[in-house]
Amino acid sequence: MLLTEYALRRYGPLPDSGKLKLGTFNLFFGANEDGKTLTVDALLKMLFGKAALRSFQAIKRVEEQPDGYVVLQLDDRREVKLPEAGSLPDLLGISAAEFTNIFIIRDSNLAIANEDQFYRGVTNRLTGMRSGEIKMIIDELRDLGQVTNTGDYKNTAPDKLKDRLSKARHLMQKGNQLAEKMLAEGYTGFEEELAALTGEREDCRNRLKLQREAANREKYETGLGALARLKEAELEMEQLNRVTEADYDEWRKTELKHEHINDERKRLTEEHLEIRNLLESARSELLSAKLAHREAEQELKKVAGGVEADLEEYDRQQLIFCRWETLAEKSILGRLFAAGFIVFLMTLAGSIYRPYWWLYILLGLASAAVLLALTIYFFYLHKKSRLKEAEAVLLVKAASFNLAATEIYTLRRDLGSLTQKVAALAGQLSEAEKSLEWRQKEFDRLKNDLEVRARQAKETEADIKRIQNLTGADNLEALAKTLKLQQNLHKNHEKEAGILESHFGKGDQQRSPADLIFYWESQIDSLSPYVQAAPGVMPDRKEVAQLNETLGRLEEKIQGLTELTQERKDELRSFEKEVDEIFNTAEDDDLRCETTADLKMILKKLEEWTQTCEELKDAALAAISLFEMIEQEEEQKVSELFGSESPVSSYFDLITGGFYHKVSYDTEQSVINIIRKDGLQLKADQLSGGAFDQLYFAIRLALGEKLLQGEKGFFILDDPFIKADPNRLKILISMLFKIVADGWQILYFSSKGEIRQILEEKIAAGEVKQVAVNPAGVQ
Question: Of 524, 767, 615, 595, which Cα lies nearest the Cα of 27?
């Protein structure tokens, strides 16, 4: 089956291609976006019709159907024109998925999608395998036996058989334990024991009733006496109600405060007298410091005024002298004088011996040099004498101010000492002023504190007088005696109130003392019916405690037995509910669990159901095992597509030049294995990129030949080797020519210049037909 001709009049932006005749190797060449991909899409739509849109996900760039046709030539030389004569699936029975996986290579991907499933589907068609039917039977057996692929029970909704069986086994164990426990407890005799305990409890309650009546009688008598004593104490307390503990505390605290204030006044008075003496002393010290500072300051001004101008003049003369001294004492002056004098003598002697004119010039220069040196030395001596004269004048003036200075240095030192003395006296004067200021402030503070304490003493005396008038007591001791009497009355009052409160309480709300007495009176009146109650019976707390203890034990036993009975009933009802969930029974179904007999019947039903499920599972697994053996035999048919004598191995051996001579398929692991000529076995993903592409091309050839029932067909290749390097590309192109020589047709779409270059000689020789894609350049 070859594609011999096609025409594409209109499809999206593509121009009318006209009628194009095709050869065995066809190169559709053009730049990117020239319409190669759209041409492939149009060919597929014309071959497969509307099914192409459902099967080929990448051809939806243009929604419309192409306007054109393709002509297929079958092996019997008969030609078929599509889509007029139908579609390729109608013609050959090949599905779009099969055609895509075998005859179309796009995006440089030679691998087969959903490889394992695809091989099985093709094999089913070619060999008549019934693995699908066997699988359906096995699935039905699993559904019937409610088992999974692993042989375990299914646990899917709504049945959830695995959980139900697990729960049933747990319930059988739980039910057996419950039956044993109820038998051991004597569950059937619980009602008789409960009646005996109830009779004992009633007798105990009657005896406790007599004790309560006797206690109420005694409570009435005790409350009546305590209430009378309480009222008597309140009457006496009213007469002493003027005196309070607060008055006593206030009087005592005020007296202590008054004593403290008087002590403070005494201390402050002593400190005030002491600070006044210190203040007078500070004033005297300040006066003395002022006089001494004034005298020293005047003396400093007098001395400084007398010698300051002369001292400045001396400093000026000394500066001038230092300059001349520096000039006179330098060695250059001595060398100038010596050289001038020697030259003078030599030129003088020469002029006498031979009077040349230049000797007279040299004699004049030497004489000038000698005179210059003598002049400088003269001025140096003059300035030195002037400096000595100024120093003498200064020392004489210093002596007139009683400064025994023998030189300028000692004069400066004496002046500095006098200045330091004035500064020291100034500091003493400042300290004396600060001391006087502090003592004056302290004197004023103490004076103010004394006035404050005097006012406080008058206030405390007034407070004590006020408390005396309020309480009527002459002194603190009399007030203490009155308080003592009041406290005793209060204690008696509290004692009687405590008795009443312990017997009758205070009620549910806050009450005033008068309301509380009224409340106790009403409580005592309510007990008046018990005045003649329980004659001859004396309240006995010990007996009451024993009766309460006995009653408590009986109540505990009755409650325990009642709760145990109820607990077992609840357990039986809970067990019944859980069994209902397993069997999915309704409330009105005959499944009740109220007695031990009901429990045994339900346990038997659970055991029969679990046994039935086990038997059904075993039968289903046995049948599944047989069908799985049949399925394994059917699965071996898939490997017939591969193997040493298979078309896949033959094509791969041919394409690789005999380097690989056998291809097999592992159905269990869904892996393709290859054996090289040296015997090394490799998996498909261990091959190099080129060998991998060659392998899958061989598989496509073999499968295509099988599907076409031995006929040859055509491959649509859209840049299949775009990832290949130059050497690998040449090998793969060479492979295409080998399969073309074997009768196959190639439709090769590419925009790569290297493809055009490799095929250039073949194009020139007519072995490759080049078809221009979008020759008009329409986008």
Answer: 767
